[in-house]
Amino acid sequence: xxxxxxxxxxxxxxLASMASSSVLAAGFQVNEHSANGxxxxxxxxxxxxxxxxxxxTNPAAITEFKTAQFSAQVxxxxxxxxxxxxxxxxxxxxxxxxxxxxxxxxxxxxxxxxAAVPSFFYxxxxxxxxSWGIGAFSNxxxxxxxxxxxxxxxxxxxxxxxxxxxxxxxxxxxxxxLSLGFGLNVTYAEAEIGTAIPQAFGAxxxxxxxxxxxxxxxxxxxxxxxxxxGALWQAxxxxxxxxxxxxxxxxxxxxxIESDLGAIIPAVAELYNQGGSLDLDLxxxxxxxxxxxxxxxxxxxxxxxxxEWSAFDKLNAELDSGDDLLLKEEDFEDSLRLSVGGTYLxxxxxxxxxxxxxxxxxxxxxxxxxxxxxxxxxxxxxxxTYALTESTSIxxxxxxxxxxxxxxxxxxxxxxxxxDLTATEHAKANVFSLQxxxxx
Length: 440
Hints:
Elements: H1 2-27, H2 35-38, E1 69-92, E2 98-105, E3 115-125, E4 130-137, E5 141-145, E6 158-173, E7 178-196, H3 201-204, E8 214-236, E9 239-246, E10 249-258, E11 274-282, E12 285-293, E13 298-307, E14 314-319, E15 324-329, E16 335-345, E17 350-359, E18 377-387, E19 392-403, E20 406-414, E21 417-439
Antiparallel strand pairs: 1-2, 1-3, 1-21, 3-4, 4-6, 5-6, 6-7, 7-8, 8-9, 8-10, 9-12, 10-11, 11-14, 12-13, 13-16, 14-15, 16-17, 17-18, 18-19, 19-21, 20-21
């Protein structure tokens, strides 16, 4: 009985780690909606209506366009997240005496996979006062994968979370200086996340065949609904100010929970192999932005983005059997993203951009884990627009993102095996973005 509850606790801890990865889709907010905005680190994006991609940030700004606009964008994200550390492992008997102790390497290279993130936008004026549009894009996403030989698979194995949002909007021009916008969000999200027994633990548990056995794997999906609003104010002839707010979207991912632990304790086989669900709240986002024209060629932009990560305070897994498991107190923290950028009209055909952003991480040291490779980040970006014709242009952008080194300290128990992991996470990424815009 003692061993049964010890294993049950280890499954709960593994589920907590897994579910944290799914919520990490929120922790890793996707900002790649606009190649032109990305070129200046998204600084002032809500106040800078250059093409239809502005819809993702501020629906009110689409009243600036006098003709129909279409934008299609794709960003290629190439992250490199490395883990360097050690794991102390001890095996205890029923009396609490140490039967075995060893230190294992807990380092792993390149745990985050590359991804292509597309988006599409269309806007059109109805009359001089009213405009409408629709956007298709992603606000949240994550993909991490540890190798089968990694010694810390019971802390984190693989995680893939994708989301896709359709955002129809309508905007109204109140007067010559003020526009307001409102949108509805339909978001589809799916996740497949799991943890496993490390190969090195197979013999410690009595059989090498238990190495890489699934501790728990959960997959599920859901459709959620939300809303967003925005305002654009022409404060002076050279100054645009903007406010936008995207409300929290609540999702309940329904799917299946699987585990191989029944091979060790048959009593848990049915409990952890059934349908289940996990709440996933996509945090609300508020942006205040400015676009200041300096002269005919130069303008500067800035934004403050506030993300309400504190809405995600705990994880609950609900199983079809009726069991309601409080898996983990997450206690995410609200975060700020500060960005500044500049735009230079080099010629009638070429526009150049550059920007910098400081992105505050949402996970504190005491809650950081291998499955949440989140930390403070610095963004350095450049971009350009080339006008092919009077109605069609191409945007290009590049970003180098450097994460601050982050310490991780975790403990896990599987049966009589206790693991203490101490590591640091090192993260950086290269992002390339390409977009085509046309008006008609």
